[in-house]
Amino acid sequence: MGIRSDLHLHAWALVAAAKREWRVARRYPDVFIGAVAWPVVTPVVFVFQARASIGHGTPGRTGQTIPTDSVHLAVFLYLGWLVASWLALLLTESSASLSGQRVQGSLETTLLSPATRLTLLFGLAPVLLVTGALSYIAVLLALVMGFGAHIALSSALAGGLVILLAGPTLAAIAAAAGTTTLFMRRSGGLVDIARALSVTFCGFTAPLAIMPSWAAKIGRLLPPTWTVNALRNTMFGGPSKTDWTRLSLLLIGTFLAISALSLAAFAAGEQRGRRSGTLGGV
Q1: What pLDDT, in 10s, does the model give residues 130-165?
Q2: Short-list 238, 228, 229, CA closest to 63
Q3: I want to staple 202 with a disulfide (CB 3.0 to 4.6 A). Which of 29, 165, 216, 225 is the partner?
């Protein structure tokens, strides 16, 4: 059954897969705890180290939402680690979900059914998109209550729109990483490499401007970079500082391209697994 035919059946299959993942997430809520805790706790040490190096800050530029240089630094780092933590969670959970289904035998059962393979690649996505929203809210609260940042409501709402736009694209990246579980028994090593490379090139902890030119060029091609830059622009300059049309086209186009590649990789992995008899087991 092709994806273009019987679209309503595919949609119902995706809804059913999402409901299943919600039930699992409610039973094991550590994914939500991590989504709130890690983006808030992890950047603190970096903020304190940086503040110790530059002092506690001087009066900031007039007209900005963020009042002092030290708070500006906190917002910069927290927004970077928000995207870093969210992407890490997406990569880890997507790979773990497919690996778990493979070990339990449910992967092979699903592949024998007429259900679209999208249920396996994106069934977990709604849960992980909610974790991104929770992380964003937790980071805003930490910045306002912990560091005294003055964040305009329009900037906070615009940042939420960035999260909404970026979520499907980041989920598609995670789905692509998850397909590696069909080619190897453990994909944790590749996931760790992907996480390390994203932290290196996407400007989560340092501006791209201070990176080597070759590294900055790579970073500007990556969706997590677009996401964190858009978040920082909305916080520091307001919604008008973001080119929403360009950002939307980039993210939607990238989502479609990566989703197509993920389906192709999944089909290749499924065919390989059927020939070798390795779709199930450890």
Answers
A1: 888 999 999 999 999 988 888 899 999 999 999 999
A2: 238
A3: 225
